[in-house]
Input
Amino acid sequence: MAGNSAKRKAVQSEERPKWVPLREDQHSELSTIARELMLARSQKTERITENTVIRLAVDLVIRYPDLLVGDTEDDLRTNMLDRFEQLRERERELLAGGAEDQPGEGQ
Output
């Protein structure tokens, strides 16, 4: 355990704080998600916190900036969530084996 603590402290020293105000619903859901992830861990070596979840969300946006389209925060959120939901639906269809490639797809 001491090794994990030293490793986490090294990572933390590379992190820079950023204060972000959250809506009440975001704060509540964030707490719930972090708590559920903590309980579901198979390895109890590292805490999963609200900040962990926030950093993961930032990593997702950085990796896929093309999901962000719009002129306002509401536009960006709506378009990103709609596109993400489309991708998840496509994944569900593929996993279920019910989707045939549409003409023009994959070309």
